[in-house]
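EI: anyone free to look at a 388-residue chain?
SC: sure, send it
EI:
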Amino acid sequence: MIRVGCPSFGTDSGRSGIGSYMRELLNRFDQEPWCERFSFELIGPKKDRDYYLEGKKHITWLPAEGVDGSPMRNFVWNQLTLPGICRKQGYDLLFLPAANRRVCGLAPCPSVGTVHDLATLHIKNKYDFSHAVFNRNMLPMLIKRLDHVITVSEFSKADIVRFAHIPPQRVTVIPLAADANRFFPAPDRAAVQQRIAGKFKVDGPYILYISRLEHPGKNHVNLIKAFELFKNEQSSSYQLVLPGPDKERAAEIHAVAEASPYAKDIHFLGFIDDADVADLYRGADLFVLPSFFEGFGLPVLEAMSCGTPVITSMAASLPEVSGPHTPHFDPHDPAAMKDAISTVLSDEATRSRMAVQGLAWAEGFSWEKTVESTLKVFETLYNAKKRR
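SC: here you go
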């Protein structure tokens, strides 16, 4: 039995893409045959235990409260306290699922970290000065101290090799996937749209973008401008639906929407429960991911798995993840974004073709493959340690 410590810090208690990654892994780590070969212990606060370990039978929990109270406290805990926990608990391996946010550079056992992306090095004004200095100077050094790095796309691997100066053989690309148990086409799309209309007051056809409201990186502002251009041109009943919690500079996004001549057609839903995510995809006529940077872009596969046409920006990993059949646009150009939206929404045959192609593309990814590849990395490191 390989004993693995797994801190939950940096995963937003499930309220982010990294949180979804953590949840999907733990759901499967708890199942046979993996629970017979690996013993996982979640390290984190009670709220993370309640979210990630609900219904789990084989994953234990080690309390760690107040660690994320401040950036400095978190850094000290990861570098000084976490290594002591590893020794005391006798872990064979330390797994850091959010290693682009929280890294331990002094682990006494082999360490594996998932670096989802290095967006902080690409997007200006994403963080304040102190965070920017840490991300540019300290983070690559700490990542380099990991025994092995997992990442989610070839684009992110190239970034990690370049910025952290890690040999390519120490970085393994393991793509994410949409959960087939949650994301699938609606048997009755009209009923789904009726439920969405009743719960969220979206009473017409809609364009969807699911993301935390973070400016400028997630590019809501240009999407709103593209939506305005589309409405001016088409004079249609389409609405723009934007679920997601407010994050950095969200007030600027809200201000642009409020000033829009189509403000009544722009819906901010805030944080939404997991149970509603799939239906929002299923009810949409189009899913748009306009982000300036994505290490992977999991919503692309989730929307495709629900039978919804997808268009994305041509930034970072998105062309790689969304596939050659997906239309791409310049995220800096609202007019180009509008043209892509118009092309899809103006032709039902195009939407039907894209839905079929998207389903086929998304089926090439699975969480079972992701988990199997992840645990293969763990076993390789563990066996290498035994041979030393």
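EI: The first strand starts at residue 2 and ends at 7.
SC: 👍
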